[in-house]
């Protein structure tokens, strides 16, 4: 059995469960409407290979689940912390860019370390303060932040301390909530 039928069944199950939260016949009507999109997503050749279509279908079903959860609440009210602005760009893409930056920095220091034989103590002396300064910067920013995404503040603090600089890069790329800028006043 290929992944497409299994993905279709799983996404259909997620949508069916989400629609149970909706009142009365609205759930049945929404289920028929939302489930009808799955075959179109899974067979669309413009999306790309099968793996990407499966990921898109599961992402669609997860979005339906979040939407139905919100609509199923009295008055359709969002969660109390829903005022956190959505991250710009796809979070996984931002984390991957952060990891690539980390790998580039490590590769640079390895190249510098092997370029000077025997190893020079000045290289270690220059790397440690830079790493400590970056960790202090990330922890200071974390302490001043009102809200963070994906982990609690203490989780991000541990990540920043355990894996320097990757933990800090991941916090800055995915966990930091950007400050909301006030809109400029309208001109008369």
Task: Please compute the radius of gyration using only Cα atoms.
Answer: 23 Å
Average residue-wise pLDDT: 75
Helix/strand class: mainly alpha
Report the count of strand segments.
Answer: 0
What is the terminal-to-terminal distance?
A: 64 Å
Proportion of beta-strand residues: under 5%
Note the run of SSEs as H and E. Answer: HHHHHHHH
| Largest sheet report | none
In one word, what is the shape? elongated
Helix content: 55-70%
What is the count of helical runs?
A: 8
Regions with little confidence, pLDDT below 50 for 5+ residues: 78-84
At a glance:
The chain has 188 residues and is mostly helical. The chain is built from 8 helices and no strands.
Description of the structure:
By secondary structure, the chain is an all-alpha fold. The chain has helices at residues 3-19, 24-35, 37-43, 50-71, 91-115, 121-144, 153-162, 166-175. Helix 6 runs parallel beside helix 8 (166-175) and helix 7 runs antiparallel to helix 8 (166-175). The N and C termini lie far apart (64 Å). Residues 78-84 have low confidence and may be disordered.
Features:
8 helices; 188 residues; mainly alpha
Which helices and strands, and how do they pair?
Layout: H1 3-19, H2 24-35, H3 37-43, H4 50-71, H5 91-115, H6 121-144, H7 153-162, H8 166-175
Helix pairs in contact: 1-2, 1-4, 3-4, 5-8, 6-7, 6-8, 7-8
């Amino acid at each position: 059995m290929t992944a497409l039928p299994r993905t279709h069944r799983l996404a259909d199950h997620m949508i069916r469960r989400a629609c149970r939260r909706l009142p009365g016949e609205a759930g049945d009507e929404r289920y028929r409407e939302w489930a009808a999109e799955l075959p179109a997503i899974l067979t669309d050749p413009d999306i790309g290979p099968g793996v990407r279509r499966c990921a898109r279908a599961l992402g669609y079903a997860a979005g339906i689940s979040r939407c139905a959860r919100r609509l199923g609440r009295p008055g359709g009210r969002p969660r109390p912390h829903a005022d956190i602005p959505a991250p710009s760009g796809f979070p996984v893409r931002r984390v991957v860019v952060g990891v690539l930056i980390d790998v580039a920095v490590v590769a640079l220091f390895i190249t510098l370390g092997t370029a000077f034989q025997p190893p020079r103590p000045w290289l270690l002396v220059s790397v440690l303060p830079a790493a400590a300064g970056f960790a202090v910067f990330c922890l200071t920013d974390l302490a001043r932040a009102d809200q963070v995404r994906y982990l609690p503040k203490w989780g991000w603090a541990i990540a920043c301390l355990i894996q320097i600089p990757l933990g800090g890069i991941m916090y800055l790329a995915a966990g930091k909530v950007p400050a909301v800028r006030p809109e400029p006043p309208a001109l008369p």
